[in-house]
Amino acid sequence: MRRRTVFAIAALCGVVGAIAVASASAADELPQLRFPVLCTLGETCFIQQTMDRDPGPGARDFTCGPMSYDGHSGTDIRLPDRADIARGWYVFAALPGRVRGLRDGVPDTGHAAMREGQDCGNGVAITHEGGWETQYCHLRMGSIAVEVEQEVQAGTILGKIGYSGATEFPHLHLSVRLNGEDVDPFDPSDAATCGAGANALWAVPVPLVPGGFLHIGFSDGVPDYAAVKAGHADAQTLTGSAEALVVWVNLFSGRAGDDVTLRIIGPDGEPFHDRIFTLDRTQAEVFRASGRRAPPQGLPHGLYRGVAELWRDGTLIDRVETVIRVDYKVDSPDL
């Protein structure tokens, strides 16, 4: 079981410049968005990417950081892995309005079975007063709970997070538009210059965590990354006859120069294995694993603890841990 013991949020910078949709005098006219998923950021869901604020071919988020990609038009609220889809994370309307359109019936297979023109996958589009619109993409097939022209309130259930359309991980893509133009709910101002920031559109402030762990687990070898993304890589128990003991992590928004430390503490409370990885490039998702081969007499039985830390410029960004029990070595089926 994963246990998160530190949840650190780095200082963020904002954006200033010519105001696109917000000003001090008009701040009270801006919509106040309800966060569209009832989840705990940093625990059960994570903001993987935000809107691209770079007007050129590059990409940057509203903090001037790398949590976006070229042309990204919204906010991605992701689940740790595909196994979490089955838990049924509901998606809610962020504002009152009228359902303009929807699509259902796209399989939850990501890019693999996406037809042309179905990038959003299963989704819902809602119009609101004042020229505003919200769109909710990559919903779970068969989960759409509204109809076209239906009036909805903030908090009305629209569907569930899925894995449909042009996506590599299960998430909700939320787009916010004013008169057809994309607007960043974290900062609706013009992105020409980075600086002091502006008024966000969230009714309750939403912290943007600049990276962290999606999962930590144990296995008897380096697991296949496909199994990690599917949510099937974490061993529940091992025996002393296992060839090795490996701790692995999957994290989001890793940056070049970050240090990822992996540590295994043995049943006697002493270090069993530790390693530090320094990331050589910025990546939206990072997988690392390290461990130790079992000694000739087998792994000592008992409870092992795995600890992972993410460090950036001397600041602890996140820390998670997990445990596994290694049972007595099994030499034959008669024992």
Describe this protein's structure.
The protein has 335 residues and is mainly β. It folds into 2 domains: 183 residues, Glucose Permease (Domain IIA) (Distorted Sandwich); 116 residues, Immunoglobulin-like (Sandwich). The protein is elongated, with a radius of gyration of 22 Å. About 7% of the residues have low confidence.
Keywords:
mainly beta, Glucose Permease (Domain IIA), Immunoglobulin-like, 2 domains, eight-stranded antiparallel β-sheet, elongated
Layout of secondary structure:
Blueprint: E1 3-7, E2 14-16, E3 46-49, E4 75-78, E5 90-92, E6 97-103, E7 122-127, E8 132-139, E9 151-152, E10 157-160, E11 171-178, E12 181-182, E13 193-195, E14 212-219, H1 225-230, E15 237-239, E16 244-254, E17 259-265, E18 271-278, E19 283-293, E20 302-312, E21 315-327
Parallel strand pairs: 15-21
Antiparallel strand pairs: 1-21, 2-13, 3-4, 4-11, 5-10, 6-7, 6-9, 7-8, 8-11, 11-12, 14-16, 16-19, 17-18, 17-20, 20-21
C-alpha Rg (nearest Å)? 22 Å
Biggest sheet architecture: 8 strands, antiparallel
CATH 2nd-level architecture of the largest domain: Distorted Sandwich
Tell me the number of structural domains: 2
Question: What's the CATH class of the largest domain, please?
Answer: Mainly Beta
Q: What's the helical proportion of residues?
A: under 10%
Which assembly state applies to the chains in this document? single chain
- The poorly predicted ranges are 4-20, 22-27
